[in-house]
Model the fold of this input.
Amino acid sequence: MKKTLIILGSCAMLFSCSQKQNYTMQSPEIDAVKAIFELYNKGDAEGQRQYYADSAKIFQNALESNPISVDEMIARQKEEVGTFTGSTLEIGEDAIEMVTTDKGETWVNVWGTWKGTMAVTGQKFETPVHSTFRFVEGKIVSEHGYWDNSPYVIAFMEYEAAQKAAADTLP
Done:
């Protein structure tokens, strides 16, 4: 009986040591996501392309039925540059992680803060952001990003209404 317990205990230790790590805070994939955020902060939308697979599907505040391509994501970022000044995506060291799912999928999750100033009014915004990136063979094949953009939409609507009202009062 004693030998059986020793053998079972040894087997348990052996198998527990061979399990794949499912969670980490340091990996090449995490470094890639950090690099994407750094490029965004520098205004280099095109530079981000190198981290995405050509067929990557991007879901920014969108359902799985409505993805955009990397080209569309880059075009949107370029358009945003004229709308906001000094926009940045900031993440803390403890706000990014990589997980490997039970299905063997590799995902990097990040929580951060987007900051920007509306160019036409000088109004400042800070918005919490969550993004998750799925990697296959070192490239992002899927990105899901979530944030509340209603404060800027409202601010733009108010600005446009004020511009229209001012134009309507001209002789």
Summary: The beta strands are 23-24, 52-60, 84-100, 106-118, 124-136, 139-146. Residues 1 and 124 are 71 Å apart (CA to CA). The longest strand covers residues 84-100. Residues 150-168 form the longest helix (19 residues).
